Amino acid sequence: MAYLEMIDIVKRYPGVLANDHVELTVERGEIHAVMGENGAGKSTLMSILYGLQTPDEGYIRFKGSTVVLKSPLDAIAHGIGMVHQAFKLFESLTVWENVVYRREPRRGLFIDGARARAQVAELARRHGLPIDPRARVANLAVGVRQRLEILKALYRDAQVLILDEPTAVLTPAEVGTLFTVMKSLAAAGCTILLVTHKLNEVMAVSDRITVLRNGRVAERLVTADTTPDAIVRAMTGQHVTLQRPKQPREPGAPKLEARGLIVEQHGRRVVDDVSLTVCGGEIVGIAGVAGNGQSELIEALMGLTPIERGMVLIEGKDVTHGAVAAHRAAGVSYIAEDRARTASAATASATDNLAMGFHRAPPLARRGLLQPRAMRAWARGLIERFDIKIASTDTPVGTLSGGNLQKVVTARELAHDAAVLIAEQPTRGVDVGAIAFIHGELLKERERGHGILLVSAELSEILALADRILVMYEGRIVAEFARAAADEATLGLYMAGGSR
Amino acid sequence: MTVASGVRARLRRPIAALVPVASALVVGFGVCGLIALWVGLSPSVMFDQLIRGAVEGPQFFETVARAVPLVGMTLAAAIPLRAGIVNLGADGQLALGGCAAAIVALYLPAPDGMRLAMALGAGMFVGAAYAALAAAGEIYAGVPLLLSTWLLTYPAKGLCGYLVRTPLRDPTTAWPSTARIAVGARLGHLLPGTPVNQGFLLIGVVAIAVIFIDRRTSVGFELRLRGLNERFARYGGVALHRQTLGVMVASGAIAGLVGAIMVLGSQFRYTDGALTAPQYSWSGTLAALLAGGEPLGSVIAAVLFAALQTGGFAMERSVEIPRVLTMVLQSIVILFLAMRGAIWKRS
């Protein structure tokens, strides 16, 4: 009998069969990767295992008996813990307070702080997770916060640990540390479920792999006996080339320039004296660990956040203190990082979402009057061209999978045919097929002579696409490389604040 | 994606949107019926009197007359609400608009027709300008509109109250008010023998214009999308500040127009507190909320509220059932609609 089994799990959402008779079998002490494209059902499956969702059919067997998990509290009580992609921590509290929260060792009515700190320190030492129990969470680096999340689960006696895309926010060095921790936890008998779409990580750290596709199990693989290509085939049902050749190109005239940009938020310099130039026909990549000022820099470039000092020029036009409308008019389009909250209106139809920005001029509007027929035709055209899977042009985009929503955003922004394209995490959480497609579109933009500024937390993406690479650390640009001169190790060093 | 499925989806949505409204109405009537039973009244008598009182014979025109200002104030609430903005200052804009209209109609040395037109225009202008003040406060000084619109109501009412108590006071009346406006500068009757005046046409034109702008223009598109996701609108290049100003100007102008219509069409003088006493701005805000700011739905809700209110008055007169029950009914309907969101989110 297996250690943990999810048997015949079915979960339906309106119009979607998220899990279609899924079986997941995990042995004690293994690192088991759950892979799949966006919308394949892996998040749903893990939500069910963590008690966030209840299955419509099927059940879970853990250590030989059936368990009913109605909430995460049930899951935790059974020894199942989860580390979410977005950490759930009290930033203003200390490490030990976060760890013992709601399970505080007590002395009478009071929390026994000394004992709690000792317990946390001991737990950290035992599992090789170095952390200062008295540190404030707000002051911790992302990698350390993740360690804290793992500690929280272990403090609650987690025997099964679900890690949801754990490396998305880490530097390469931090990823290495995390893998070491995962392996030692597994060696100590802890079972780890790793939800990810990154092939190299799965190859590096997992023992076995369950691949989901369209809500069903597509393949069960033993890592040692498989190849990345085989996994991609299982995920997509087809063969996808991950890398495409890129022609070298002479950059043209400057399209986007930033000079000495300074942005301050809450009294802190989040963008500190940044200057950069993006020329026509060139892709400039900004590498960096999330949270080092990239988002603020892009917001400043787009007029979404006030600029303290410095200048932004789009095709030579000064737009420093203009609003977004002025930037867009000057010739920039923008694929925003947060497709669900910023780059789309979830409850609005595909027609409305795709019309935004085109709704004032012919053919979609004439003399201020909308042309509904032209709007729908426009939406249909983009849906076809970008192969967006959607029921109709009237369907609210909030119902789409992450990859399809990203295509909606990408389609609209590319349709502007603007001189500058700012692409922020354009493929985050997008399936392999859509990644290849979006990368192809970005390269086409480059061929057209447009300037592209690409921000990505994925080094592989930057290395695959960029002609020039800038590294951001703590609000500054700390290094610049021509593509040929850059490699993952060097970039990783600068991303972590090091230098040569 | 087929044409048929597209058409079906487009038909399904408005119908699906009506289901919760209808069920909230049923629940509201049901609860009021139970309350009536509990205090020993007959629900059938109550509803019979309520409906007759709203639509039977001359009562129908009472409802229409009441619907004119109520629809106006509903639109004044619905336009900002469509963009996710709340204008709580409609009462102040209403009072100032009515007061300005009275002053122009009384003292402007011009031919009658001209005086009437100028009085209406003055009402709209003053209402719009006062609302714009609140918008400017948010844009340039960061004072939240919710707060500024509400607080600016008091100085507006205070100023109008002072004017009719001191410089403009008609000494022949017991209550502080201006002199009576000459017949020539009034809005005439639309249907003789009924309380419906030409203000009906003005508000009708405004309602049609608002519905058209909302559905068919780029301006309406930007308004609607801001209401759905303000971050997205900003990201997409909608000039939010300018839009805020425009929305408040439109809302204030309509509130001011309603004030002018009430003064020029039925009261014929500005009397302290008379415009705000019926609480049209509150009923209007509720009606707009009921329809989520969608203009046609808001207008329908406003007409329904007008019918409930006239019906309530008639019911109180004829069978002595307190009309506060109709307010209970309105409140329950709104509460149920508000609850719907939570219930749906959970399932």
User: What form of chain A results from the Cα inertia axes?
Assistant: globular
Going across the biggest sheet of chain A, name each strand in turn.
6-9-10-3-11-12
Structural class of chain A: alpha/beta
Q: What is the subunit organization of this protein? A: heterodimer
Using the 3D structure, state the CATH architecture of the largest domain in chain A: 3-Layer(aba) Sandwich
Strand content of chain A: 25-35%
| Count of structural domains of chain B | 1
Helical content class of chain B: over 70%
Q: Return the CATH topology of the largest domain in chain A.
A: Rossmann fold
Secondary-structure element order of chain B, N to C = HHHHHHHHHHHHH
N-to-C span of chain A: 54 Å
CATH superfamily caption of the largest domain in chain A: P-loop containing nucleotide triphosphate hydrolases
- Approximate helicity band of chain A: 25-40%
Low-confidence stretches of chain A: none
Count of alpha/pi helices of chain A: 16
CATH topology of chain B: ABC transporter involved in vitamin B12 uptake, BtuC
- Structural classification of chain B: mainly alpha
